[in-house]
Amino acid sequence: MKKGVKIAAVGLSSIFLSGLAVAQEENIKEFMKYEVLNGQYVKEEIPVDPNAYLWKTVRGKKVFLYPQISVRLNDKQANRLIPKKKLVEAMVKVAYNNDSIAVYVRWKDNTPSIQTVYDTNKFADGVSIEFPNSFGKGITLPYVGMGDGNHPVTVYLQKVVEGRDYQKVFVSEGFGSLTEIKEPAQIEMKYNEKTKEWTAVFKRPLKTENSNLKAGLVPVAFAIWDGSKFERDGNKSLSRWKFIKLGKYKIDEEYLKYVSWGYPADKIGDPAKGKKIALQNGCAACHRFDDQLTAPQGMAPDLSDIGGIANPVYLKESVVNPNDVVIRNLNPNRHYNKHAKPDKFKAYPNNDMYQWYIEVNGKKQSKMPPFSHLSEQDLKDLIAYLSTLRNWKNFK
Ligand code: HEC
Question: Ranges for the Cytochrome c domain (predicted)?
């Protein structure tokens, strides 16, 4: 891996002035260290069985998943547990050959939970991985919570449901816009009573109708559901975008430069200044974060743990160009306008204040104004600050 970094850095230094290249090297090193999962090339068929010998020989890396708080269910019982949640630590391994790629995910869960047919208050443990349908040079990162209108993703989902093998593949453009598809994917998930761990292996062809993963750096993200905490749908834990390195393919230097922007996020700027910038620019009028909890819940995504689930470059784009990724309203029907006239079924219309976007000529436009006037340094301070936000325990 060291060699790969060096080659990439040398390539970049020829593009940039030497002073800049030093800074580049630093952020690429950090990015490689924390965000890149090394895919191991193998010649043989890759087993889907999590207990197969091959998986003992592949080196893994830890991935952290944060409780997703922007999505709230109409379920007090589930919401109440959010501040008590812990980070989910998953061990991730990747193997690939000339045709297929397989991703192994292992995590601790002391309370294996299986959804039964009869008990509607019992929810399934589950896991999913997603890949953007397109990525690479010139293509921005999707919303990590299952894509958005400009960035469809393919999601592979496995849940533990009694009596059937519940696995699905979707193309998703965000909440409420899932299309189930048929892909030659295989998934297997097993529980180990001794170690109290779940392990799942996802295997798919490198190239499918929807996406081609034959690339040096492949974005991937993870979600895990803990059924015993009533988790289901958007109530889950979520990783940020990680990147699988496939050594057989060349890393596009422009893409590497793009995705490694802002690493390490706590060093690109001053978080204390960044907080001031957030307050001066009125972010707290719509968002809740840190000790800023006055915005009505649901008016905009809750940013209390945004530093855990968002990559620095994604944060930058969210602030400068909110229309590139427009997050679909997570729970639009939770808020009603009780001042308006109810319809014939005595139901009030939705309260527009909680709608996250408007449609202009059929295109979604974010209600968030672009903050493209911020200076480069103010922007870096702001991103440094947003990256420190990993305090879902603040959730109220
Ligand atoms: C007028 C209300 C409003 C203001 C002011 C506002 N935002 Fe937003 N923001 C939104 C809405 C609505 C969304 C979700 C729609 C979208 O994707 O743009 C959003 C999305 C975001 C996201 C993406 C969140 C995610 O989960 O991916 C970030 C990050 C963000 N805003 C940061 C900021 C920052 C930083 C400021 C201040 C500089 C700010 N916002 C000011 C309304 C606002």
Answer: 269-390
